[in-house]
Amino acid sequence: MRRSRRRGSLARWTGQTIARPLRRFTLLPRSLLARTFLLLAGLLTASVLAWSGIYSWLEQGPRAQQAAQIIISVINLTRASLVSADPQRRLELLTELSMREGLRIYPDGDIPGFQPMAGDRSLATIEQELRRRLDPRTRIVVSKGLQSGLFVSFSIADEEGVDDYWLMLPRSRIERPLALEVIGWGTAALLLALGGAYLIVRRVTRPLAAMKRAARAIGRGERPAPLPVQGAEELAEVASAFNQMADDLARNEDERALILAGISHDLRTPLTRLRLDMELAGLDPDTVRDMSADIDDMDKIIGQFLDFARITTGEEPVEGDLASLVLEAAQAYARHDKPVLLGRVDPLPALRFRPLAIRRCLNNLIDNALRHAGEDRQIDLLCRLEDGEARLEVCDRGPGIPPEQVDRLKRPFTRLDSSRTGQSGAGLGLAIVDRTMRAHGGRFDLLPREGGGLIARLSLPLPAGSTARD
């Protein structure tokens, strides 16, 4: 019976499954500056290597002709000297050629220590040129070992016949080594080109870096200085468009804050008249109490609108002691017999922050903890120095918040349909805290507390080189 084939599976052999695809690792840098510079450096290096190859290929023919002319001249002079010299003095002549010129002549087939090796393309070109201009039987052999050099065959004809010989020349006679000056100038030219490429790329990426810093400042609720409209036309247009966008966003923010503040302020006037009319109407105490609670809730909602509108307006950051602010908040709640206990307080360096905005955040978080954890349960207030951050924590033993709902609850006008958030308020409390922390360059986290409850953490970065106070 033929068995059906099935696809292979790692799980069948290992008993394990691959939870997610392997991540791609790349050696390319992440920044535009480094990537563009590497691209230009690669192109310049490839261009230099290509031109070097082209130059070497174009120079091969003229160099072979020059080397062949030198060899022909040496062979002709050597042959003429041997033929015209007195036979008794030929040995003396060969010795003198060897001592002064480095030339040696051997009979064909009688070369001690001869170890031929394969030649290169340049020697083949020289050999072809010698065969064309000197003798069709001319051969060139490169030897290593004791007899290291370039051997060229030639013949001497006389009345008795033709004798074949080998003429050994030092390779330096025909090979021109690459001069260090050429390498130095080539390297200098390459480095100069790479330096120019870096400056060009830097001029392109510098405005982008400035734009990135300005965009992050806008995200924190700040108003950065306008970007300089200069440089290349494209970059100048982008900077101009970014400045226009920043101005539009600032104008919209001012108008929104003005509208919210105006509406909230105007709504409090009829609420005050309504409270006064209610007290003068002679209603029963229970009805007055219920109506007064409703008016208080409406007044708190209006207060939240005002707080949300003036997060980044009306107060400038000042240098202060964050630990003292936490201590004052704990003392204020203790005076009203609220179960707010000040726990760990680390000495912190001086920080720049908006005191009223941070105090408003602490009050929102403490009120939220008291409302949902119960006023009979202890609320812990901490001020810690960890991981280069100043962290303020409000810890309660309430029902907590599901982790998947944390990000949604930081949005304006959002409430959790459970006992944690209740039904009062406009859903702006956590949004105010989150927006305030982002305006300070910090972070707002809602974390589950060990043993049950919630940790509301405010994290502010410490300035570089700061030291804690004693």
Automatic annotation (TrEMBL):
<dbReference type="GO" id="GO:0005524">
    <property type="term" value="F:ATP binding"/>
</dbReference>
<keyword id="KW-0902">Two-component regulatory system</keyword>
<dbReference type="InterPro" id="IPR003660">
    <property type="entry name" value="HAMP_dom"/>
</dbReference>
<keyword id="KW-0997">Cell inner membrane</keyword>
<dbReference type="GO" id="GO:0000155">
    <property type="term" value="F:phosphorelay sensor kinase activity"/>
</dbReference>
<dbReference type="InterPro" id="IPR003661">
    <property type="entry name" value="HisK_dim/P_dom"/>
</dbReference>
<keyword id="KW-0808">Transferase</keyword>
<dbReference type="InterPro" id="IPR003594">
    <property type="entry name" value="HATPase_dom"/>
</dbReference>
<dbReference type="InterPro" id="IPR036097">
    <property type="entry name" value="HisK_dim/P_sf"/>
</dbReference>
<keyword id="KW-0547">Nucleotide-binding</keyword>
<keyword id="KW-0597">Phosphoprotein</keyword>
<keyword id="KW-1003">Cell membrane</keyword>
<dbReference type="GO" id="GO:0005886">
    <property type="term" value="C:plasma membrane"/>
</dbReference>
<dbReference type="InterPro" id="IPR004358">
    <property type="entry name" value="Sig_transdc_His_kin-like_C"/>
</dbReference>
<dbReference type="InterPro" id="IPR036890">
    <property type="entry name" value="HATPase_C_sf"/>
</dbReference>
<dbReference type="InterPro" id="IPR005467">
    <property type="entry name" value="His_kinase_dom"/>
</dbReference>
<keyword id="KW-1133">Transmembrane helix</keyword>
<dbReference type="InterPro" id="IPR032408">
    <property type="entry name" value="RisS_PPD"/>
</dbReference>
<dbReference type="Pfam" id="PF16524">
    <property type="entry name" value="RisS_PPD"/>
</dbReference>
<dbReference type="InterPro" id="IPR038421">
    <property type="entry name" value="RisS_PPD_sf"/>
</dbReference>
<keyword id="KW-0812">Transmembrane</keyword>
<keyword id="KW-0067">ATP-binding</keyword>
<dbReference type="Pfam" id="PF00672">
    <property type="entry name" value="HAMP"/>
</dbReference>
<dbReference type="Pfam" id="PF00512">
    <property type="entry name" value="HisKA"/>
</dbReference>
<keyword id="KW-0418">Kinase</keyword>
<feature type="domain" description="HAMP">
    <location>
        <begin position="202"/>
        <end position="254"/>
    </location>
</feature>
<keyword id="KW-0472">Membrane</keyword>
<feature type="transmembrane region" description="Helical">
    <location>
        <begin position="178"/>
        <end position="201"/>
    </location>
</feature>
<dbReference type="InterPro" id="IPR050980">
    <property type="entry name" value="2C_sensor_his_kinase"/>
</dbReference>
<feature type="transmembrane region" description="Helical">
    <location>
        <begin position="32"/>
        <end position="54"/>
    </location>
</feature>
<dbReference type="Pfam" id="PF02518">
    <property type="entry name" value="HATPase_c"/>
</dbReference>
<protein>
    <recommendedName>
        <fullName>histidine kinase</fullName>
        <ecNumber>2.7.13.3</ecNumber>
    </recommendedName>
</protein>
<feature type="domain" description="Histidine kinase">
    <location>
        <begin position="262"/>
        <end position="464"/>
    </location>
</feature>
